């Protein structure tokens, strides 16, 4: 293995954390500005200190990727265009995006900016990789829920299509697939797709017979002992989560991963010592998704720092005094780490490093054509069913009847083919998650039944439908939030229409223009 086969990608929630990542040996850092990024709680950067950060990073052979990884509202399009025009004047190494409208605008108006597909796009099958490649994505962050065999398959496919694969190797897990979790949004209007997740999965719920007060609280991800498998799989970018974490956390995790990667590249035995990783914040660690071992051991009944508990078990503490000594030792160790990191980053001088102010220095952005607002000519009623016994409804009515297909489609393919062949007017509704053979089964189903219309929450299915010349509508879980996302789906993939995001308010919905004769649902 050689070092150019890997990229160690570190989080940078503020200037000090960015310095810490550089000092620890990161190859690249992802960071956000004060708008349009999925970590609103981080201090973030301004455009002015972004330029200074770029100078510092590039002087240390480190790249900087800017996160624009949220859904963009219609009213924000002009501001986003101005920002992209500003970024085009910098030496930014890439932009990380979620919104399809934003990706469309980048392709059409800012082709010089390198596009990376965010984890928020929930990429887990080959069709999605091709879908994103068509929007000029040079790399894709794969869903954290994939196992190593699934990653290997997608990485090989990515190499064949000149798309790099990126995988999270350390940090927080989410209880839901990225981009598809609406718990925070439904509970208090704080959308994770807008960078405002309130982390309801980390909260305590009423204890049940299952026994856990924190039933949604996953342990943290750590693939530290899986580097060889990831290397064999062909993964390029090894990404550390943590833009809300402190500089000493960033330094410790990145430094350990840097040393591990260097051992692999130098043909030295890989370390299994995770002591330092357990010293900084953690909720205990799991690699269950990567290993494909799902179960109760992935969860922990405490969302707070697990370090004291971990080392108390390591030292087999049996008394309160022994646990107190572990706390003191851990405090001393963390203090040493913090002082060491502060000394290292103090040596890195950077100008305009004050975080949190508004963007300045706007320049002329490309003028967008005024999109016409086409009122719907007629309104149609449609029904979604999930019980095969209700399929006869499609024979007895002229309304559109959609059948909700299962995620485990491969196992049910024969039954689904029989169902649709017996009910010619029945239309398929595809789920958002279709991994591996289930995605192949979805393609087979389309090729066999050739429906007059379909709805899909998976972009890979949408791409395949367009190649078959089938009329298709983007489902609600494709998170269409602005007119340019609708235009993207129509122009790039021949979509007939789209559901608008369930997270939009009535006022936000009213701003969206109906592109051509597209269906809006």
Comma- or semicolon-separated keywords:
single chain; 521 residues; alpha/beta; TIM Barrel; 2 domains; eight-stranded parallel β-barrel; seven-stranded parallel sheet; 18 helices; 17 strands; 37% helix; globular
Protein architecture, described:
- This protein is α/β, with parallel strands linked by helices and 521 residues long.
- It folds into 2 domains: 3-176 and 220-346, Aldolase class I (TIM Barrel, Alpha-Beta Barrel); 382-520, TIM Barrel (Alpha-Beta Barrel).
- The chain has helices spanning 15-24, 47-59, 77-88, 100-109, 126-133, 148-160, 183-188, 227-233, 247-265, 275-279, 288-291, 307-314, 320-346, 409-422, 437-449, 459-467, 483-493, 506-511; strands at 7-11, 28-32, 63-68, 94-97, 115-117, 137-141, 164-171, 220-222, 237-240, 285-286, 382-385, 400-404, 427-430, 454-456, 472-474, 497-498, 519-520.
- The strands form 2 sheets. It has an 8-stranded parallel barrel, surrounded by 6 helices. Strands 11-12-13-14-15-16-17 form a 7-stranded parallel beta sheet, with helices on one face.
- Helix 9 crosses helix 13 (320-346) and helix 12 (307-314) crosses helix 13 (320-346).
- The relative contact order is 0.13.
- The model is unreliable at 355-359 (pLDDT under 50).
Task: Set out the fold topology.
Elements: E1 7-11, H1 15-24, E2 28-32, H2 47-59, E3 63-68, H3 77-88, E4 94-97, H4 100-109, E5 115-117, H5 126-133, E6 137-141, H6 148-160, E7 164-171, H7 183-188, E8 220-222, H8 227-233, E9 237-240, H9 247-265, H10 275-279, E10 285-286, H11 288-291, H12 307-314, H13 320-346, E11 382-385, E12 400-404, H14 409-422, E13 427-430, H15 437-449, E14 454-456, H16 459-467, E15 472-474, H17 483-493, E16 497-498, H18 506-511, E17 519-520
Parallel strand pairs: 1-2, 1-9, 2-3, 3-4, 4-5, 5-6, 6-7, 7-9, 8-10, 11-12, 12-13, 13-14, 14-15, 15-16, 16-17
Antiparallel strand pairs: 7-8
InterPro entries: Peptidase_U32, RNA/ubiquinone_mod_enzymes
Protein name: Related to collagenase
